[in-house]
Give the backbone structure.
Amino acid sequence: MDDEKVGHCFHDCAMWMIDHADQHPNALLVHGLPTMMEPPHEKFGHAWIRLNNDTVLAPHPTRGMVPVLLEAFHLIGNIWPDEFTTYTHAEAARLIVETEHSGPWDKRYALNTIGAA
């Protein structure tokens, strides 16, 4: 998929998973469809890290990976359970090798509008 369309969040989160596999073995890479906070309030493809049951790391263009409470992240982004997919370190590594890119691997998450981090 075209990196110009989906922004850098998919790449940044995939690289975080690779770089932090030893320190955070239970972290999950997430690809999903949050809703824009500003009009026109459309869904967009985005990636983030689920660090644990309480915290996500949201990629930011200048601040790097920003910790956010999971519940707040899902509420602010209006993210429903059927609007995201999680990947373990092993699954993400396999898909990176098989597809030769860092995602999104499911076309649902290639909805581009901003998805950039």
Q: What stands out?
A: The helical segments are 3-6, 9-19, 70-76, 89-99. Residues 1-6, 113-117 have pLDDT under 50 and may be disordered. The chain has one domain: 3-110.
